[in-house]
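Hey team,

Filing this mostly as a record. A colleague (T.K.) asked me to run one chain through the structure pipeline before their review meeting, and I want the input and output archived in the tracker in case anyone asks later how it was produced. No errors, nothing strange. Just documentation.

Input sequence:
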Amino acid sequence: MFTEFRKGTMFSVFFALIMALAACAPAATPTPIPTKAPAAAPTAAPTKAPEAAKPPAPTSTLAPAASPTPRPATLKFGTPQVIADAGVYIAIEKGYFKEQGITMEVVNFRTVAELIAPLGTGQLDVAALPLGVPLLAAADRGLEVKIVAGGGQHRQGWEYGWIVLRKDLSDSSQVKTPADLKGMKVAIPSLGSLVEQTVQTILERAGLKPSDAEMVVLPFAEQAAAFGNKGIAASFTVEPFIARGIQEGFSVKWIPLYELFGGKLDGQLTVFGPALLKDQELARRWMTGYLKGVRDYLKAFEAKQGRDDVVNILVKYSTVKDPKLYDVMELPYLDPNGQMDRSSVDAQYKWFVEKGLYTGKKTLGDVIDLSHVDYAVQRLGRQ
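Output structure:
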């Protein structure tokens, strides 16, 4: 049996050796390669060509916002048709949102106070409004709203908000200082907001209590009539209502807002609603398009590049329909990197808390998220 086993083993080894040599033969001989090539060549050539043409694909994958065909979306922007929303208007008209696959629907409102409820419930996707108690309270109630960038800013040379005085009171010198407002009516567009804070600050610095002058709530558009019938002595107002009041002879500029808040004041902040907060990629695309619009706005009014085009866009979207008014109005400043003046925002928040107007638990850290604007600046470059 042992002999038979050895014979069988030797035979197996010999057979395996032959098979191994046979297996190696095709790899070593050149004959099979040409044989297979004709059959494979027609298929392989077309298959490899697209693979060789694929290098651009990783670029669009790494930067979806820059893709020529980004995921389409339709978003709603709420506005009281103010010039400070110029970045959005320009981005719409110049196709910057379209580049990002975004269609913007502009929804007009009478006042900024009307924006908060539809923003928090998702009826609007983005809006620009002042920091105020209604916005903080909405966040405190669990509504998904966050401040994601700056907006219209008051500063020297860009002072689009003033405390204006009725012209006859100015001409007669009946009112020279804020202390002279005692017993008179001062109009503000909303309560629990920057405008109320501004007027109260003016009165307190003049040694008056808030109750010494009566604050009445009047939308900007209704203040001219109130000045005309002498129903109010002064008001917090913004352009174009300042220029119109001067042209019509009802009011005069009195106290610029930036002087009250250390030289800079964020009168407006960009706020996202639930849809954009849940979709980071879409939020980044929106912010990229918006900042391109903001930068065109600054070019138009700082460097006079494309000014006529930008004025025509503002005439179309804002309440200022007379192009000549843009030669006399002071316009809001928009930061090219979407930044806010944090010190002024902190001061506003602190005042609401100290006055007991906001008693919720949300801090500014809870309601501010600058990650989207940081991404857009990184993509576009800092200016």
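Quick notes for T.K.: Confidence is low (pLDDT under 50) at residues 1-67. Residues 79 and 108 are 5 Å apart (CA to CA).
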